[in-house]
């Protein structure tokens, strides 16, 4: 057991809570939000609004057993053509429902594996986006990259499309761990991808690592981290593996007895974070790290860091538009989510141009609580004065909840202020638990979540 955490604190870190990439969280979405709602929200956007686009490519050629994403394994390229046809129709339909003068400031292609696309389809999808939406001159274009099978043709196509930021999944280089999660990826493949991207002018590079994987030891994880550090990524995300086989049946392939216990998870996370700070990275929020010159570190320093479905971000757009199967959009009025299944998504797009299956219209209280939770996750602070300024007198409703939290949890977690509190270094590992205290949906929900660390 790590010296810095007591048995009771370890038990708290094992508590299931949301990751809070949104509030309210997706398990609370309902079918009450429809295509009709979505059109109304698109029409209600102000002319000149800044848009963020998330484009989901839900295909992989192998299934990683640790994966928690909405994805589909395919052995042939054939299903991708009809999916891209539907995606182009959705792009056109969304653009047609927006007022004039809107422009795109951020684009993110996620998966699945977006780099499963053939070079000509990368160009095709990019052209569809450019023809439908005006892009700002400084638009940030990010793509999730699978180094396995990433060839010069795909790299050239991404560069031609204007890629500015790449995110590469590594997880762990240890052979035993890779076998247990069915993801075989060498350091050489990863280094080749990094070099190819940088040679083509990609100026920001993120790498993802996971702790808590089956058969993973601290020694093996730190060895993987040292290899990653030789690549000097601009950003690095250190996620805890979320074992949720009740949601993702393929995770049943991972034997529960091979998973590290909470003390081992915590020690891996803490030691890796210490090593990253030693290497010159700044700790960002709960689980991200960035070089001081990276925009994420700059945003954390000046108080403009945000959090959305992609995690910590500099994206300050007025709304996020989700495109593709299972994609989630976020608007001032609430959330929309497309059909999860690819065929259902394609059918609905071909019928009406849109494919919303569920969502949630948010209340004034939801906005207040979402703001408070995002401030905790990004700034480690809750400031009632700032919340009153943005939300009015309704912010007073949080006062008794703040008092109850401070009375319930360890005093060392908090630096108490006249109108709120800051979360101390000792309290930061527990930040998801602190945020959950202000989640009014959690006690009445039926969703199951991963552990707090």
What characteristics describe this protein?
single chain; 453 residues; alpha/beta; pyruvate-formate lyase- activating enzyme; Arc Repressor Mutant, subunit A; nine-stranded mixed sheet; three-stranded antiparallel sheet; 37% helix
Relative helix content: 25-40%
| CATH architectural label of the largest domain | Alpha-Beta Horseshoe
Summed over residues and divided by their number, the pLDDT gives a mean of: 94
Number of domains: 2
CATH class of the largest domain: Alpha Beta
Task: Please explain how this structure is put together.
This protein folds into two domains: 27-323, tm_1862 like domain (pyruvate-formate lyase- activating enzyme, Alpha-Beta Horseshoe), CATH 3.80.30; 363-443, Arc Repressor Mutant, subunit A (Orthogonal Bundle), CATH 1.10.10. 37% of the residues lie in helices and 21% in strands. It is built from 15 helices and 19 strands. It has helices at residues 7-13, 35-44, 80-97, 119-132, 152-161, 175-181, 187-199, 218-229, 262-278, 295-302, 342-352, 364-379, 384-391, 399-408, 431-436; strands at residues 50-57, 59-60, 72-73, 103-111, 135-145, 165-171, 204-211, 235-240, 282-284, 288-290, 306-308, 311-313, 319-323, 328-331, 334-338, 356-361, 381-383, 414-417, 420-423. It has a nine-stranded mixed β-sheet with strand order 9-10-8-7-6-5-4-1-13, sandwiched between helices. Strands 14-15-16 form a three-stranded antiparallel β-sheet, with helices on one face.
């Amino acid at each position: 057991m790590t010296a810095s955490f007591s048995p009771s604190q370890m038990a708290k870190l094992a508590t299931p809570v949301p990751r809070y990439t949104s509030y309210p969280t997706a398990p609370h979405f309902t079918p009450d939000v429809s295509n009709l709602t979505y059109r109304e929200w698109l029409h209600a956007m102000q002319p000149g609004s800044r848009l963020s686009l998330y484009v989901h490519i839900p295909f992989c050629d192998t299934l990683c057993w640790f994966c928690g994403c909405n994805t589909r394994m395919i052995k042939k390229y054939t299903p991708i053509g009809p999916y891209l046809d539907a995606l182009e129709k959705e792009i056109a339909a969304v653009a047609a429902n927006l007022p004039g003068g809107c422009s795109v400031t951020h684009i993110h292609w996620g998966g699945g594996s977006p780099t499963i696309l053939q070079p000509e389809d990368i160009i095709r999808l990019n052209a569809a986006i450019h023809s439908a939406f005006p892009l700002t001159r400084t638009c940030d274009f990010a793509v999730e990259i699978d180094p396995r099978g990433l060839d010069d043709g795909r790299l050239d196509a991404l560069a031609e499309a204007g890629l500015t930021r790449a995110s590469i999944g590594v997880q762990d280089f240890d052979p035993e761990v890779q076998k247990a999660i069915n993801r075989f990826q060498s350091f050489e493949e990863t280094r080749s991808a990094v070099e190819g991207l940088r040679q083509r002018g990609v100026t920001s590079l993120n790498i993802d690592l996971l702790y808590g994987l089956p058969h993973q030891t601290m020694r093996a994880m730190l060895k993987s981290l040292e290899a990653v550090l030789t690549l000097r990524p601009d950003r690095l995300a250190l996620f805890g593996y979320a074992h949720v086989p009740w949601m993702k049946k393929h995770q049943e392939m991972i034997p529960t007895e091979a998973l590290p216990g909470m003390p081992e998870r915590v020690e891996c996370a803490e030691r890796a974070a210490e090593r990253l700070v030693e290497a010159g990275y700044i700790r960002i929020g709960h689980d991200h790290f960035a070089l001081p010159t990276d925009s994420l570190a700059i945003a954390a320093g000046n108080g403009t860091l945000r959090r959305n479905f992609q995690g910590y971000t500099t994206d300050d757009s007025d709304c996020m538009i989700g495109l593709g199967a299972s994609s989630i959009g976020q608007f001032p009025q609430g959330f929309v989510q497309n059909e999860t299944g690819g065929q259902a998504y394609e059918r609905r797009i071909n019928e009406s141009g849109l494919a919303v299956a569920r969502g949630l219209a948010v209340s004034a209280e939801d906005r207040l609580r979402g703001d408070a939770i995002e401030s905790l996750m990004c700034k480690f602070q809750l400031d009632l004065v700032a919340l009153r300024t943005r939300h009015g007198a309704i912010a007073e409703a949080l006062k008794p909840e703040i008092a109850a939290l401070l009375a319930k949890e360890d005093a060392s977690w908090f630096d108490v202020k006249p109108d709120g509190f800051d979360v101390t270094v000792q309290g930061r590992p527990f930040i998801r638990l602190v945020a959950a205290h202000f989640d009014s949906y959690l006690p009445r929900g039926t969703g199951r979540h991963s552990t707090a660390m």
